[in-house]
Amino acid sequence: GQRNHVSLFAEQRWSGKRFQISGGMMVHVLTGNLTGIHAYPGLDISYRIIPDLKVYSSFSRSLRLPTFTEMYYISPTHQGNAELLPETAWDYQMGMRWAKGSYSLSSSLNTRWSENSIDWVRSNSSEPWESRNITDIFSLNMDIRLVLNETLFSSFADGLRMQFGYHFTDQIKEELSIDSKYLMDYLKHKINWKSSCVFAKHGLISVNINWEDRAGEYTDWDTEGIAFQRAYDPYFVVDLNIKWNIRSISLQLGINNLLDAEYADFGHIWQPGRWVTAGVGVKIGGGDM
Question: Residue 180 burial (CB < 10 Å; 0-12/13-18/19+)?
Fold first, then answer.
């Protein structure tokens, strides 16, 4: 297969004391494999209500062409599909950003309508994976992020910074009685908390805590080697990092998955348990490390 691409893009910006508007259009001409002409508009608007608070909104149309792997790859376990159609999607987002002193807060809501979504699928575990346009998907995503800077905690800690985030996704799509590699599985909930602080003037300690809940199922095998579909279990992971500086020497200790959680992040691929790393850095001469 071969493809030749020609893209023409135009954009216009308007700005004022409190608002900014940016609009554009791209025309994409494709010849060879999947010949066609496609137009992709986009618009971004932001408005600063007060000096510390800004709201924004945007929409756009996008395209993903099937890869040559998805179209032509053949192996004992995978079968490409030369008749694949491109994926198209409409995205709409609105959100706000607020920052004042030691605080900052941002949140966003995003909707996405995709058509002709491409994935590798199969009817059962004895069949090879085949690439197909399987369904249309409507996605709803929400993100919240809160940051607290060191000046808020200067009375009892030096250089303390905390960050909290929450992500939510929901999908509406046709229920299909097939195994899917990617599209049927998605991260539904994610809570993240990060903190770091300086101690004893020479040390830095940071903690990263994640709780994730993934929707969907994956293929697993029982003790007799019989395949079955298993739902993802939520998991909780804590990472710890410590750094200590002694003049020109820097000592580092990292512990990933501190609580030794057992979890599968994607498919039946189990992630490492507790993982400890250590390192030493030496600063020679002037300049920063």
Answer: buried
